[in-house]
Specification:
2 helices; about 65% helix
Length: about 90
């Protein structure tokens, strides 16, 4: 065998580790519980992101309308820049 065999084997195991498969029933239940909680967390984050996106769009819309009524320059965000404000 080559003297580099052990080093190559070590590096290969670091890059492509063997999966840890649960063998006992409690380990399997724990794995399933962790997976379920991660999925639930992801779902709630996605719902929150969608809701906040809708709210941000609506808020920007109303800020642009108020800019239009005030006669200010209309910006995409609806927030007047200091250089464009009228005294």
């Amino acid at each position: 065998m080559s003297k580099f065999y052990k080093g190559g084997k070590y590096v290969f195991n670091m890059l492509v580790p063997k999966p840890k498969v649960p063998k006992t029933e409690p380990e399997k239940k724990l794995r399933d519980m962790i997976e379920k909680s991660r999925k639930e967390r992801g779902k709630s984050k996605k719902e929150h992101q969608d809701t906040m996106g809708k709210l941000m769009k609506a808020g920007a819309y109303w800020r642009r309308r108020s800019q239009q009524m005030k006669g200010e320059k209309i910006t995409k965000s609806g927030i007047s820049k200091g250089k464009d404000k009228k005294d």
